[in-house]
Amino acid sequence: MKIGSVVRSTVALTITAILTSGCSLITRGDCVDIGVSGIQVTVLDQRTRQSPSGAIVTLTDGDYRETLIGRGGVYSGAIERPGTYSITVEAPGYARWTRDNVSVVRSGSCNYLKNVALTSDLQPIG
Question: Which range of residues forms the domain containing residue 84?
């Protein structure tokens, strides 16, 4: 067997293996490079269902710490960062709200982050 035919056979077998294994290296046409939020927290007053002003939402995962900036009471973070988070929400005049062990993972054929959406119902103090 000549070297050229061995190379052609190897290439043909490799391409066949890729195509039949569902490898996304070739079929990523439907995937787009975007930054996906791993966590979304909606912050509401437990009684009025309105967004309190001055809320601070913090995510921690080990040594990693992120303070989220919100709009209209919705705070998003953990952009393209899987992990296991603790979430803390603080606002003047409200009791602190926390959630531990919030898991953010990748999923699907494009390996995007699976967004975790939570609602923080803050209880007014007093």
Answer: 39-122
- Better-predicted residue by pLDDT, 114 or 6: 114
- What per-residue string of b and e applies to 23-47 under the rule 16 or more CB within 10 Å gives b? eeeeeeeeeeeeebbbbbbebbbee
Is 104 in the same domain as 62? yes
Strands 39-45 and 116-122: parallel
pLDDT digits 0-9 by tens, 2-58: 555 444 545 444 444 444 444 444 345 678 788 889 999 999 999 999 999 999 999
Same domain, 43 and 105: yes
- Same structural domain, 66 and 111: yes
Task: In whole angstroms, give the CA distance from residue 78 to residue 57.
Answer: 12
> Is beta strand 74-77 parallel, antiparallel or unpaired with respect to 116-122?
unpaired
> Contact, 65 vs 72, CB < 8 A?
no
77 and 50 belong to one structural domain? yes
On whether the CB atoms of residues 57 and 41 are closer than 8 A, the answer is yes
